[in-house]
Amino acid sequence: MAAEKNYLVVVHGIGEHTEASVKKDVKSVLSKISPGFNKNVETHAVVYNQVFKDWIATAKSDWNAAIDKLASTNHFTGAKDLLKKKLGNDNQDFLETHALDVALYLSTVGVKVQLEVALQLTELLQAFIAGGDTRNRRIVILGHSMGTAVVHDTLHKMIQGGFEDDRANNLANMSLRINSLYQVANTSRLLKTTIDPTTVDTSVRPYPGGIIDRMYNVNHKFDPVPRVKPFKVDAQRWLPETPYPDSMYQDIELKAVLDQDIHSLKHYLRDPRLHMPLLFELDRDFDLPRNFRAKQVEYDKTTKKLIEARLKKKVDAAKAKLADSARDVILAFLDNL
Amino acid sequence: MLKLKHYLIAALLFTSTQASSAEIGCATEFSSLVPEGNDLSLIDPRDLDDWLTALKDDDCAQITLDGYSDFAGVIDVYQPGTRLSPIELINKSAAVLNALNKVLSQEAFYGDKENRIRDLLPDRITLASVPDVIFDITSVDINGNAFFSVGKSRDAQIDQLLSYKQSCATPDSNACREWERFVRFFAAITFAVEDISESHSGILLENVKAGLTEYISDWDDYYENRKPQLPWELLANEVWNRDIRQSKYFPRPPKSDLVVFHPQLVYTRFDSIDSEIKLEGSILWEIVGINYWDRSILTGVSLVSSKLDSTDSMGLLLTLRNVYSLGVIEQDDDETWFVSVDLFDFMVDKKNEFAEKLNQNLESLEGG
Questions:
Q1: DSSP-derived secondary structure for B304-322
Q2: Which residue among A91, A135, A284 places its CB closest to the CB of B231?
Q3: Does the N-terminal peptide bond of residue A208 adopt cis geometry, omega within 30 degrees of 0?
Q4: Residue of A157, A269, A174 whose CA lies nearest to A212
Q5: Residue of B134, B140, B228 with shortest CB distance to A66
Q6: Looking at this predicted complex, what is its ipTM?
Q7: Angle, nearest 10°, between helix axes B174-225 and A109-130?
Q8: What is the mean pLDDT of residues A249-270?
Q9: Distance CA B336, CA B351 (A)
């Protein structure tokens, strides 16, 4: 029996993320659902925050150097004030925002992000092969939010694009395949830097168009982020090379609402519509309920229950208030007797 | 690598064997495909291919092996729409074959030999058999996908295929014995394909990693060395270098960057009064220019002006090593030379350094 684990590779979205924090988010949810998860699955996180941080640090130091240079010379006091205002304070707030991360990813800085992510993915694939018995093990990539765009653009370049002066240096002919790609809160079309991921030009498609066996497009009905420019394909047209497009590509729509943070990866993972196929694929000890479809449908009603519970709470409070005021009225009436 | 060689030698052995001259049809028994003795490695795979094709033929129905009905499911894999088609695995094995074909069609693998090694692994054979040899199909189906149990050793895989033998109508029949020989032969090929393709994937990944490492270091150099850019210059360069941003492959960093409204601190006068240098500073604006960050000394050139709102005083600025500048500007009908403050500081440092060294040398000379 193979002792080597299956791989789950997570590419995070916008925000402050470290390798440890991403792993913790994923493990905390999935190991609660399936106790064998940590034993059977090795969770890996691909991170790219540092690219943005480094860029921002360089920009800040360049701009401050320009200001300081002016400040050091008495001749330029007027210009100094102007520049300090323009470059220093005005931009401080913007530099801390997530909007900047998106803007930077869409700029040439995105190329550096893709290179760094590609290197991490390559090393993970190497480690996976080094573990041996690749035919019987599984490797799954999960992108979340901006991570879906990063995964798409990076994988496309790795699989088909190659390098500027060595286009043939790619993984198109690699026999090792990624078993599944889960694109969660899919923004790969909204934030694309290169080709459109919904066309047949992309190599991030199920085999034989790409090196992925199956792809799941997972979005929440009420999550506004992936709805701006939704990832929508007609599987028959998108996968003309295979006679089984519907079993190789699937749309999964989540409906349940647990809390306000429906865009978060944790909220997505808690939904059985996502974690059931994911765990079933990765964790050989995961016990898929016989009536799993019914359970998924049942879970969809979480929102309704939540709203009902809240309404009940409000009604109860109103009743109590009413009872209180009724008592006050009676007491006042008694006092006046 | 030893393994790979091993298979290739075996493969060459295959090619050296002549195919039997008798025509292969329904009636041909598997054992007759083995040219000498029991060495299955000497079977010409093309014969095997013909044999399987013949068995699939409708006219061959009456000669189909007794136990072959079980095997039929494997052959059915070819027919789209079969309910339990192990889609994923067919594709997997097709990829394996593909990769192998690619490996084998590279010159390095067969030098000046004929293009025959590839013929050793006819698609049909591998495609048809890999799924059941390697995987156990589980009946569970989630979201419409076929799933497969995992974690079998190679021996277990062979045993599973051999278990088909028990369903032979006559266990001792020739057909069942042929079946076993066929399975063992087949498993050997399948595992060879698996090992070769795994090492092939490893080679591809190693090449990609080398490329990535090189490009990342290039981009690091670019960010470290390029001429510092102010916000509006960053925006302008996004347009200037848009091809890089939108490229379908991993691009090298930009070769050039635009310079737009970039302020420069310069000294414009170097009067020597009482052996003291008197400097006059001013601010110049690089209106527009270009800088090639990776060049050795002279990296860029820009049009400069001392005023943003008039064209009265225009000049030319040269950028050295991405940061230092010097140039000439027309002011009051006079040509005025200037150097940037950092270049001046740099020169002063160099001058002091030189003077110090000279002094040291002189002292040592005097001492000597």
A1: EES-SS-SSSEEEEEEETT
A2: A91
A3: yes
A4: A174
A5: B228
A6: 0.85
A7: 150
A8: 90
A9: 23
pLDDT band at B175 (very low <50, low <70, confident <90, very high): low
Q: Are B130 and B96 in contact (CB under 8 A)?
A: yes
More confident residue, A109 or B312: A109
User: Is A194 in the same domain as A333?
Assistant: no
A275: domain CATH number is: 3.40.50.1820
Cα-atom radius of gyration of chain B, to the nearest Å?
Answer: 38
* Structure letter (DSSP) for residue A211: S
Question: Do residue A244 and residue A271 come from a single domain?
Answer: yes
**Per the CB < 8 Å rule, is B263 touching A66?**
yes
pLDDT at A308: 77
Domain boundaries, chain B: 2-205, 232-367
Question: Taking Cα atoms as reference points, which of A49, A334, A127, A336 lies closest to residue B206?
Answer: A127
User: For B53-108, how does the pLDDT look when each residue is reduced to its tens digit (9 = 90+)?
Assistant: 555 454 443 332 222 222 222 333 222 222 222 233 334 344 444 444 443 343 33
| pLDDT value for B254 | 95
Looking at the fold, whether A197 and A337 belong to one and the same domain comes out as no
- A234 and A316 share a domain? no
Asked whether residue A210 falls in the same domain as residue A336, the answer is no
- Boundary (domain end) residue, out of A95, A122, A151: A95
Q: Are residues A218 and A233 in the same domain?
A: yes
Interface of A with B in 223-252 (CB under 8 A): 242-244, 246-248, 250, 252
Residues 188-207 of A with CB under 8 A from B: 193-195, 207
More confident of the two residues A17 and B42? A17
**Whether A227 and A268 share a structural domain:** yes
Which one has a higher pLDDT value, B215 or A56?
B215
Evaluate whether residue A135 is within a structural domain: yes
pLDDT of res. B181:
57
Size of interface A-B (CB pairs under 8 A): 202
pLDDT over 90 (residue B170): no
Note the pLDDT tens digit of each residue in A83-118.
555 555 555 555 566 788 888 999 999 999 999 999
Quote the pLDDT of residue A130. 87
Q: Do A208 and B95 touch (CB under 8 A)?
A: yes
pLDDT of residue A62: 85
pLDDT of B116 above 50:
no
Would an 8 Å CB–CB cutoff place A94 in contact with chain B? no
Which of A2, A166, A177 is closest, CB to CB, to B92? A177
What is the span of the domain harbouring residue A331?
301-337
Mutation target vs A (from B139, B143, B260; most A CBs, 10 A cutoff): B143
**Are the CB atoms for A178 and A140 separated by under 8 Å?**
yes
A65 and A209 within one domain: no
- Could you report the per-residue pLDDT of B279-302, keeping only the tens digit for each? 677 788 889 999 999 998 899 999
From CA B181, how far away is CA B158, in angstroms rounded?
11
Rounded to 5 degrees, what are φ and ψ at B330? -95, 115
| B95 to A125: CB separation less than 8 angstroms, yes or no | no
Q: Please tell me if residue A65 touches chain B, with a CB cutoff of 8 Å.
A: yes
Q: How many domains does chain A have?
A: 3
